[in-house]
Specification:
Helix content of chain A: 40-55%
Mean pLDDT of chain A: 84
Radius of gyration of chain A: 23 Å
Number of helices of chain A: 12
Oligomer: homodimer
Low-confidence stretches of chain A: 394-412
Order of helices and strands of chain A: HHHEEEEEHEEEHEHEEEHHHHEHEH
Strand order of the largest sheet of chain A: 5-4-3-6-9
Largest sheet of chain A: 5 strands, mixed
Structural class of chain A: alpha/beta
Chain lengths: 412, 412
DNA sequence: TTCTTTTTCTCCGAGACACAAATTAAATCT
DNA sequence: AGATTTAATTTGTGTCTCGGAGAAAAAGAA
């Protein structure tokens, strides 16, 4: 329990200032003062300290000669070079590594096509280590410049402990990637559920910027769930990230894990025979099979679209349950191929609409978002940057400072 | 967004002090200092202010002449008469009203047997008003002594707005009980989901004292869900309390609301024909029918126990889903009659065990708790008292101050 | 009893902070 | 150049926590 003392006070207010600058671009001191509701005096003191630490820098170029009469505002922005972080995403068939600066701009990224599930955890750690070192080097940096690394992967992750309890892409359990990579790379390394990374990326950089409550449902080989609640990433009691795939979708009897009904992997199994029919090539690669399925569905093949619809319905069932619990104004369905197909999404929407009680019928907006590797890397970066910004409590961003991104100054 | 200033600092620390006293009985200043990790100076200043406000009082009776040599400790405790609050619970067939003091002790309570669903909201408000006034009077108090009232009822409640969006015991929707009762009684009135009240009662006074994460599943006529997460009552995005009854238990097809499968009301409908069989009396009253069902099941009637088991399994399905999301160390199943029956609970436990993924198999302890009217009233009281304690952030109690209830002093 | 010891509590001053008011800085307008 | 306007900083005041010195209140020792 942290008792409140002047230091905490300063830490909180410093975070507000940093957060305002991060979110609303270059800002002058007056603007910060208005946004944060801190007095100009305090803002001046805090920005002075931040400038001193080189976390922010003045934007000198005359920039917006903003029609002003008096002394011009000095715009302040994050110092991109204040720190650099590395982000890693482990997917079943690929390791993605990236390096970003303090603003979350991706300086360099690297994709290693590796069938992860065939490797031991220690081999994967080798590959990650090499990938990070290479990526850092390619960005013209030295490991000494890197402030932290975050690894995202699907499954049940205990962030605080730095351990992956269980993952569909790992054979082993309780893999301590955190400590391992910290030791290998000589920088603080954290791990988290991959969906949490997209969730944070959406919150910091994406469609849910400034939104304090939303869900991210990630559909790829496996299923993931990210929850932002009250501006904070939601984690279970022990810091365990919730795993959507483990949710059960059918009560006793023909029970089924959601991952076995609605993930890309399960859909492919379901559709395998179907696809084999018209195809000369007997062996279908993962990606190709899915593409084929989607193409056929789009072309009007009822049986193919039926498979997708079943998956969408199953997921919609789960999403409806989550909406009754969290009542989020926005639900983001993210993924690569399948998630963006209408043959999947429409049944999902319909299922949600059918299952939701009337009182919650219109609270949630379901939107679809195709991600690329950059999102993951930015998410991983944000996860690490959050610490550097000095948030004194476990938040990814406090209550929205104001409704409009930048209200006209002057009045108020 | 509240900026940090000295005032907030003081508010936070004052809350820590109050919370320590509330939780660990009469305490001396040194003990408070050790528990809260605040300096003795600060504790002295804060307690002086609290004594000044008469929120706490010294416990003069020589009490534990605690084998000491030096200046004896002055034990401080909450002043029971610092404030009084009223709590109200609306159930389908009864209105329960109670008045407690600042310590949560129930001074007086009153149960009005009313079939609420036959009345309009305004009649109910009349009854509540009269009940509160009577109860306050019977406790030897005047409405002027009452600092606040909290009403609990099943359904979807938007606490912040003081509105009950929808409730199984009300015909009307969007009933603004909060503003209405504030106006009628002339004191601040809040409303909340009834389960939230038991949840808070368990956290403050009951089995989950000091536990920061647990679920309460309340089984009576309808189903309720209370979630304590990170020491705070969990609410959906708009402050909406989640409603377990609205959760869907079966995916598309023979879909069903959980409330239609696992609540007492649904079980009775299911079992109606069954019960009528051997019974001369054609019309069975609610409570009697349930008692009869339980008795027959206990006597070995397979068909009756089957009905209960089906309900237990359906609820178990939902609980398993909640455990995968929240990973709470404890799940409390509370209720009056049905919830405590083994014919209901064992199937529930089994369903949970069967549906939970291996990685979460042992995280949650499911316990059963029979409540009485007092629990509700205490919960409602706690809900109001929380504000009086001056918690500056929306918590029901911060991180546990220390593991043991009261560690031996002296060393440190 | 009277003095010493021990423990609890309070007063005092230092240091950190937020903030309001006054002051300085740096531009445009006349 | 001087007036005007807006931005940022300096100065002064009050609040807070906290360490250390001192006062209070008991038990034990002489």
């Amino acid at each position: 329990m942290k008792t409140a003392d002047p230091e905490l006070m300063r830490a909180i207010n410093r975070f507000y200032v940093m957060d305002a600058i991060r979110r609303f671009g270059p800002l002058s001191r007056v603007e910060i003062s208005q946004l944060t509701e801190l007095s100009p005096t305090t803002v001046s003191a805090i920005t002075a300290a931040l400038l001193d630490d080189r976390l922010i820098i003045p934007l000198q170029l005359g920039a917006v000669r903003d029609a002003g009469r008096g002394r011009p505002r000095v715009m302040l922005k994050l110092n991109p070079d204040a720190a650099h972080v590395a982000g890693v995403k482990l997917a079943h068939d690929q390791i993605t590594v990236g390096v970003t600066n303090f603003c979350g701009d991706i300086l360099r990224s690297l994709a290693l096509p590796v069938r992860i599930d065939r490797q031991t955890a220690s081999v994967i750690a080798d590959l990650v280590e090499d990938g990070v070192r290479r990526c850092v080097g390619d960005a013209g940096l030295d490991m000494a410049h890197i402030s932290g690394v975050c690894v995202g992967l699907p499954g049940v992750v205990e962030r605080a402990a730095g351990v992956c309890r269980q993952s569909p892409i790992l054979q082993e359990r309780d893999v301590p990637f955190g400590a391992d990579l910290s030791h290998r790379l000589g920088v603080p390394a954290s791990i988290d559920s991959d969906v949490n990374l997209v969730t944070l990326a959406e919150h910091w950089f994406g469609q849910a910027r400034g939104l304090n409550d939303f869900l991210v449902v990630n559909v790829e080989r496996s299923l993931g769930l990210g929850i932002l609640h009250n501006g904070e990433l939601f984690r279970g009691a022990n810091g365990l990230s919730p795993d959507l795939g483990d949710l059960m979708v059918r009560p006793s009897g023909g029970g089924g894990r959601l991952a076995d009904l609605a993930s890309e992997a399960s859909v492919l199994i379901e559709a395998e025979a179907l696809l084999r029919e018209g195809e000369a090539d007997a062996r279908l690669h993962q990606g190709r099979a899915l593409a084929l399925l989607l193409k056929r569905a789009a072309a009007g093949d009822k049986r193919c679209s039926r498979v997708l619809a079943a998956a969408g319905e199953a997921l919609g069932f789960a999403v409806a349950g989550l909406i009754t619990l969290f009542a989020p104004p926005k639900v983001i369905v993210s993924g690569r191929a399948m998630a963006t197909s209408d043959h999947f999404i429409e049944p999902l929407r319909n299922a949600v609409a059918a299952l939701l009680p009337a009182s919650l019928a219109d609270v949630s907006d379901i939107i679809v978002r195709e991600w690329n590797d950059g999102n993951w890397v930015q998410g991983a970066a944000a996860m690490t940057l959050r610490d550097l910004y000095g948030a004194p409590w476990g938040t990814t961003g406090p209550a929205p400072i104001r409704e409009a991104p930048l209200p006209p100054l002057g009045e108020s």
